């Protein structure tokens, strides 16, 4: 289980995330929603270690992660995908995934490793590429991939790392209407593994309704709602904070 306790960050006099306490269980997909500037991505950055918290704690399966850098949190089991792709543009598609597989095996760049070991890494990378429908592009440099395929490749890298927690920050941002369903289908397939925890920051409420088992809502850096999707979406605080509907306008 992933937990945050009173997680807070201040930028000068501004409190971007304010004492957020929440836990996320395996086998669930939690959508984190809220208006622009609510603190959603900042909360993600605090969990994954891109930002250092002013106060509060992050724990994974009871292990304290709060003082660890992002790389150590990744090794501990947090897998993070960003709004902007975070890939090696001059390497091929296959090389990107093979490096991620290699990282989990602690193989390093030892030229004296026997060929069978390298072949196993390559085979695993090819299996992952097939699962994200990129097998036919394995030899292409990443810089030449369309944006939608780069997003698919980023999911492939996360799958190669085999994290306990998948963190997706607006995974369909910048994708065309035709490209987005591929990423959403990949997330649906990841949900089938009940040992994994999935966090999703998303603005598109149709995506949230379809994928989420639970919704938490942030506004002005504070946690204001937490529960099942239908219940949270219908609540007056969400209608007002997220949808811009005043309390008097919420349907009975």
Describe the structure.
It is built from nine helices and ten strands. With about 250 residues, it is of the alpha/beta class. Helix content is about 35%, strand content about 25%. The model has no long low-confidence stretch (mean pLDDT about 85). Helix 3 crosses helix 4. The chain has a six-stranded mixed beta sheet with strand order 6-7-8-3-9-10, sandwiched between helices. Strands 2-1-4-5 form a four-stranded antiparallel beta sheet, with helices on one face. The chain has one domain: Rossmann fold (3-Layer(aba) Sandwich), CATH 3.40.50.300. The two termini are about 35 Å apart. A hairpin with a 2-residue loop joins strand 4 and strand 5.
């Amino acid at each position: 289980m992933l937990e945050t306790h009173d997680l807070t960050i201040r930028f000068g006099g501004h409190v971007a995330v304010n004492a957020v306490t929440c836990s996320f269980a395996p086998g669930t997909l939690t959508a984190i929603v809220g208006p622009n500037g609510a603190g959603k991505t900042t909360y993600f950055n605090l969990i994954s270690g891109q930002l250092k918290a002013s106060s509060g704690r992050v724990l994974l399966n009871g292990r304290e992660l709060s003082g660890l850098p992002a790389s150590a949190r990744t090794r501990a089991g947090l897998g993070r995908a960003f709004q902007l792709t975070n890939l090696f543009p001059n390497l091929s598609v296959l090389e990107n995934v093979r490096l991620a597989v290699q990282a989990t095996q602690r193989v390093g760049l030892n030229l004296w490793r026997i060929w069978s070991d390298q072949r196993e890494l390559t085979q695993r990378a090819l299996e992952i590429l097939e699962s994200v429908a990129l097998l036919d592009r394995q030899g292409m440099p990443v810089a030449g991939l369309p944006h939608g395929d780069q997003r698919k490749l980023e999911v492939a890298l996360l799958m190669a790392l085999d994290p306990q927690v998948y963190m997706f920050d607006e995974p369909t941002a910048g994708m065309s209407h035709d490209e987005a369903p591929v990423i959403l289908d990949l997330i649906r397939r990841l949900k089938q593994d009940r040992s994994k925890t999935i966090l999703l920051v998303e603005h598109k409420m149709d995506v949230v309704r379809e994928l989420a088992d639970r919704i938490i809502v942030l506004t002005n850096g504070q946690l204001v709602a937490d529960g099942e999707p239908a219940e949270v979406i219908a609540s007056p605080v969400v209608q007002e904070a997220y949808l811009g509907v005043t309390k008097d306008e919420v349907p009975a």
